What does this fold into?
Amino acid sequence: MEGWQQDWLKMLDTVAHEVEQLFREASQGMVEAIDALVEFSADVVEEIEAAVAPELDQLDPALDDWIEPILQLVLGLEASIDHAVEPVTRTVEPFLNDHPVCVGCRHYHGRVYGGTLLVCAMHPYGITDGADTCPDKEASQWGFMPPSDDEWG
It folds into this structure.
């Protein structure tokens, strides 16, 4: 009875050894293929770089001539947008400055001068007595709409 069990174990051991050998050979073949692909890719990149680099060097000044006016336009547009939305941002910023009473007030200034925040002309340092309301608060006349140029005064 024990003879067939030993034969069975030898056969399983042989199969396991053959499968292991198959995987080793397959992985070795894959490593060689990957190495060849990496080497080929590096050669292709070098050839493309050698062919394109002189053209890019000539194109660089031309791109600067095209990009500079576009960049100036974008920067000018950004400044215009900042100027147009200033009333909106001024009425929202009190949240960030820990002056919740001032949110939405048309008198809120919220700018820093010499390291000191000027909240508004009536209350330069904000409502300091811990009050929840301000007697001088007036709603912003524009709400969230930016003013026209003649309203900037």
Summary: The two ends are 109 Å apart (CA to CA). The first helix runs from residue 2 to 84. Strands lie at 111-113, 116-118.
